[in-house]
Amino acid sequence: MYTRFIRILLCLVLTAAILAGCAGGGGTPVTDDAQNGATGDAQDGAADAAPQERPEVFSQDEYVLYQNIFYSGNGADYDGVSVEKEGVFAEIHDAYNDLLRYYVWGYYDQTRCCDWQWEFVPREGQELPAVGSLVTVKGVFSSGESALDGYWITDAQVETKTAYAGVSAALDMRSMGATLERVQMYNIISHPDVFEGQSYVAYGRIASLSSIQDPYYDSSWSNGILWDGDVPAIGTLVEVSGTVENGALRVASMNRME
């Protein structure tokens, strides 16, 4: 039911995504001690990123393929096909299934409000880079009952193109597109005991003096923030970091994102 809910929700919000204009990028600190991770830019390819930057990948073709497979029901046409994907490496801590999930993902375009993501299963013995690294994933696109959305890339070989070595955390949601962040946030909210005390980095819009929400879409997700500093105006896009506390986000630093 959890996976179906996510997919139904995404169908509703992503249908209009191409028409949406959304901002993203680096940040201006709200507090003097806040630290901000910069991003690189690229079109239909990988960012030429320095190790401290968060790489980005933009591909309209991957987005269209992702939509065709997961929302137009064409996954069976690709089952068993060898694939190669270039994107950013991310991990989802799936508390519903007690599983660590691996993804390679990117954006549709530079609005950054529309994204695509491919779950993969690393080949046995495969060494994985730091979350947020730019990678190439080669494997077989396969159906699987344990795949979050029914398909994943199996026996995956992962080549690191640019290793990320910047600001990170146990739950690095800044190295995720908005779709993956949504899934991770649902996990945190629904299973607070599993994530209690874990460090995180996340991003979203200020929803109130005590809450943050999806960076681009209303009525998607929201979570409480525990923060003693000044809160920017409602709707401001921010990066926050700290630790999880009772399913909410205890904030140690907050950055405005432009």
Describe the structure.
Helix content is 16%, strand content 38%. The chain has 258 residues and is α+β, with helices and mostly antiparallel strands. A five-stranded mixed beta barrel has the order 10-11-12-14-13. Strands 4-5-6-8-7 form a five-stranded mixed barrel. It has a two-stranded antiparallel sheet with strand order 2-3. A hairpin with a 2-residue loop joins β13 (237-245) and β14 (248-257). The chain is globular, with a radius of gyration of 17 Å. The protein starts with a helix and ends with a strand. 43% of the residues are buried.
Write the layout of secondary structure elements.
Elements: H1 2-14, E1 27-29, E2 45-46, E3 57-58, H2 60-70, E4 81-94, E5 99-107, E6 115-122, E7 134-143, E8 151-162, E9 171-172, H3 178-190, H4 192-195, E10 199-208, E11 211-213, E12 222-226, E13 237-245, E14 248-257
Parallel strand pairs: 6-8, 9-10, 12-14
Antiparallel strand pairs: 1-14, 2-3, 4-5, 4-7, 5-6, 7-8, 10-11, 10-13, 11-12, 13-14
